UniProtKB/TrEMBL annotation:
Chain positions covered by the region annotation Disordered: 28-61
First and last residue of the signal peptide: 1-22
Composition bias, Gly residues: 46-59
Domain of life: Bacteria
Protein name: Lipoprotein and hemagglutinin (VlhA) family protein
Keyword annotations from UniProtKB, A to Z: Lipoprotein, Signal
Biased amino acid composition, Pro residues: 33-43
């Protein structure tokens, strides 16, 4: 009876990990769509009284607001890739922790509605640098510890195979 309960537990644990792995691998990074090109005003036949800037100087504010919106969109698109990026480093605890901290910092800037353009750009740049550094650190670690990585991968595959076999027997 005790053995049967242990097998059930291990099989449920294995199934749960497969479901989480499938859910994590089904997410993909989204790419932002660029803003459409602004179109000039159609000719009005001289009806606007010669005032080519009817906004009264508001065009510069609109430009700054558009730039801030574009920067926020870039930051949001990087933040949207968090789950997929962090999951890629699940076997690398230090890299994963550093990347998670960078995402947390960028998220706080993104959530700050009064953040200035430079703050948003800086957060985007810092997060992109952290993502690039994580990839570089992972490659460096794999190259410097090829035997360890190979043994770890073999062990991980063996555990996965055993879990799959246990699931077959229990179900």
């Amino acid at each position: 009876m005790k053995r049967k309960n242990i097998l059930k537990f291990v099989s449920l644990l294995g199934i749960g990990s497969f479901v989480m792995l499938a859910a994590a691998s089904c997410t993909s990074a989204t790419t932002p769509t660029p803003n459409p090109e602004p179109k000039p005003n159609p000719p009005s036949g001289g009806m606007n009284g010669g005032n080519t800037n009817p906004g009264g100087g508001q065009g510069m504010m609109d430009s700054a607001a558009q730039e801030l919106t574009a920067a926020r969109t870039a930051l949001t698109s990087l933040l949207a890739s968090k789950n997929a990026n962090v999951e890629m480093y699940s076997d690398y605890a230090k890299i994963k922790n550093d990347l998670t901290a960078a995402y947390t910092t960028a998220k706080s800037t993104s959530d700050n509605t009064s953040a200035a353009l430079e703050q948003v750009k800086s957060a985007t740049s810092t997060l992109q640098t952290a993502i690039d550094k994580a990839a570089s650190d992972k490659n460096d670690f794999n190259n410097q510890n090829a035997d360890l990585v190979s043994a770890y991968t073999s062990l991980k595959d063996a555990v996965k195979s055993e879990t799959t076999n246990l699931v077959r027997f229990v179900w």
